[in-house]
Amino acid sequence: MIESLTIRRPDDWHLHFRDGDIMRGVVPYTARQFARAIVMPNLTPPVTTTALAAEYRDRIRAAVPQDMRFEPLMTCYLTDTTDPDDLARGAGAGVFTAAKLYPAYATTNSSSGVTNVELIYPVLERMEQDDIVLCIHGEVTDHDIDVFDREAEFIDRHLNAIVATFPNLRVVFEHITTSDAVEFVKAASDKVGATITPQHLHINRNAMLVGGIQPHNYCLPVAKRETHRLALRAAATSSDPAIARKFFLGTDSAPHMRGDKESACGCAGIFGAPVALESYLTVFEEEGAIDRFEAFASLNGPAFYKMPVNQETVTLERIEAPVPEELPLVGETIVPWHAGQVLNWKFVG
Ligand code: DOR
Ligand code: ZN
User: Fold this and answer.
1) Residue 252 falls in the annotated catalytic set
2) Which residues constitute the domain of residue 37?
3) Ligand 1 site: residues with CB under 6 angstroms?
4) Of 32, 134, 193, 226, which residue is the least packed, with the fewest Cβ within 10 Å?
5) How many domains does the chain have?
6) pLDDT digits (tens, 9 = 90+) for 311-341
7) Alpha carbon 246 to chain centroid distance?
8) Which pTM value belongs to this model?
9) How far is Cα 160 from Cα 158, in angstroms, rounded to an integer?
10) How far apart are CA 174 and CA 158, in angstroms?
């Protein structure tokens, strides 16, 4: 049995830092494990321009502890009125690494999102020309569509059309939760990749709804039935490199204070950053795929984003590691992913 694993330093290709004190409180958890992270722009107000993103990046950089090296990669929040020139300028200047499509009202702070995907086709055309990555929250928001069907429906209604209309646009189908999404990504060209969160590899919807409602297992897209979880695990850990390389690590770590989760209208989001690598590695070990973990965590994402892989390494050791029930944050508490559980791996640096 392998006792220790050293891999190239990974990156987190999708997460939420928020802003202000919360941001300053959560950035160190990510900077400890990861070299870079794609930072979501769903602040209030959202990060819609190059200027806002550059300022936000400065605030994040200032929150990185002195002894850590970490680079935030910024995203532009697309709206019905995004200016393609500003986006292209920001990307050209190295401020934006990607742009994010939130269908309006799909999730936390998405009310300024896109009301009709076709409205931003001119922006997508420019992104295709300039080779700017499009990150997608792939859920329809129509009230007649069941919440468990919203991802599959997004593929049918929008994603097929997007990739057909813009065949050279690089698209990340983010935090996928269904076998439908896995099949879509597998069948798509190399321009299409997907991130997978730790929670969607660990839990199905029972973990949210059985034995009382479990707000700390609630995120969007919601966890689906077991068959979907198994499809995600098979994709992430696939022994076929042509399949595996399309899928990469993106925690979707999304801090919400305990009180906002344990509420009559609890917020969507799971705070995965404190135990991100331990959580993923547990899955890869269960699937007999520890040797494929480095590709998922540290190689596939940089290859897709056309960025260099990191030169430093990190090590995880097989040590029983209890996860705290809660962590202090801004004078309150936050419940981390795997709270109260004992993991078999520990990040040692
Ligand atoms: O669960 C989620 N939380 N899903 C998202 O898409 C957004 C995120 C957040 O910002 O809290
Ligand atoms: Zn997210």
Assistant:
1) yes
2) 11-311
3) 16, 42, 107-108, 137, 219-220, 254, 268-269
4) 226
5) 1
6) 999 999 999 999 999 999 999 999 999 999 9
7) 14
8) 0.98
9) 6
10) 14
